[in-house]
Amino acid sequence: MAIDRRATFGSFGVVADAADDGDNIIHCPTLRNELAARPSPFIAHDYFGGGFVSDRDRVCLQSIKFAGERSAGSRSQDNLQARWCQLVLREARTRVSEDTLPPQGYLHLPDYAMRSGPREIIYHNPSDTHIAICTVGGICPGLNDVVRALVHKALDYGVPESNVMGIRYGFRGFTDRQHRPVQLTRRMVEEIHLEGGTVLGTSRALPVVSEIVKRLDLWKIDILFIVGGRGGNAAAEAITRECDSKHVPCCVVAVPKSIDNDLLLIDKTFGFETAVEEAQKAILAAKVEASSAYQGIGIVKLMGRQSGFITVSAALASGIVDAVLIPEVKFTLDGEKGLFAYLERIMQEKGHCVLCVAEGAGQDMITDQAPKTDLAGRPELMDVGLWLKRQFKARFKNADIKYIEPTCMIRSIPTTAGDRVYCKMLAHGAVHGAFAGFTGITVGLVNTHYCYLPIPLIIQAPRRVEARGELWNRLRSSIGQPNFE
């Protein structure tokens, strides 16, 4: 068995190819050479009257032509291709020596992506297709929505209910004899979207890829859906390659999950809007506490290990935050331009202040906590919120400081209506992609259109808030925050 990947031009494992018609398009790998083509079961009614998507449909990645680097947005997600190259090279410099990197011009992202959606020709016989669904990593609003929509669309294709299984507790469920896979029927998943978390359970256990592929082969799984973040998508790519090397004809399709909104190329990840909305409650509580106290200071720590999108967006939406700290922008506490001096001015003017900080901010400044690692071997973040509280206590002797850390409250709730629709569209696109024979792909909203992307493109580096970009500038201009350097 050989996955059709075609010749690549790019670097760091990027799959990005020119299509046969000469368009500069991101090519998605398939198993079509190993599978039998057949008409879609939806042809009779033209997919409910909406028609089908062609592999030759194109989504333009870049909708704006900037006059130059000084144009607003040229350093942000609006300049998708340049920003992708910049972040990938930045990440690569942390892993390999500079002299081994290719010139920046060599790292190229094509102009177009392939549209997500139903195809007229499919490559699995629905009545004989076996499907497995797995949720991995931390919980996030929308996981149950995605599982439900995956099951519903698979059943719409004609897959028997007895052929759809859910893997328990992430990758652990492939080998854990105490937690066998469960059958996912329409009735079982009917109302799970009304609850937070994941009905399948999840874990951060590292995947044993060889054992997972053995189970896929043993259980005759034709399609595996993995709902996960950068780590989950990286595992999906590793499983894809292992299936290829072991000649296991299983299409592996990921649905990108990241409450931090830190996946490359994708406009937004599911659960992000819900998280921003729920964070308003914590920010408002901090405002009420701070404004009700003598010299009150409210500190809210939000999610954002490497990227500050939730913190910036929540602060911008609230309109009541005085200062924001994120991992992408360094800050100092002391000096005329430091955080302390700025907050002192705010306190003199208003009598209180509210600070929002992303969990990954200021990690290089914390020296009074011992480093730890999590189950996946990643360095655990030191608690910047408690560290800031101690620093403020030492500086503002008479201040009444309230610290709020609402992470679990935000992660565990059901989705808002907008996120619920988004989850459904992503899941439907994943099912369509799998039946179209694609493998090693993820589905996401790119430049406002649903696309298929080869997994390596989105896991090369974390997407970050650009310190000189439009989003950070909007936040600073909105609240009047200076540079704390």
UniProtKB/TrEMBL annotation:
Q: Which InterPro entries match?
A: ATP_PFK, PFKA, Phosphofructokinase_dom, PKF_sf
Coiled coil located at which positions? none
The species this protein belongs to is Micractinium conductrix
- Cofactors (names): Mg(2+)
One example GO MF annotation: metal ion binding
How is this protein named in the record? Answer: Phosphofructokinase family
The chain positions of domain Phosphofructokinase read 131-432
Decide whether keyword Magnesium is in the record.
yes
Where on the tree of life does the source sit, at the highest rank?
Answer: Eukaryota
SUPFAM superfamilies xref list:
Phosphofructokinase
| Keyword terms of this UniProt record | Kinase, Magnesium, Metal-binding, Transferase
Task: Tell me the GO BP annotations in alphabetical order.
Answer: fructose 6-phosphate metabolic process
State if RNA-binding is listed as a keyword: no
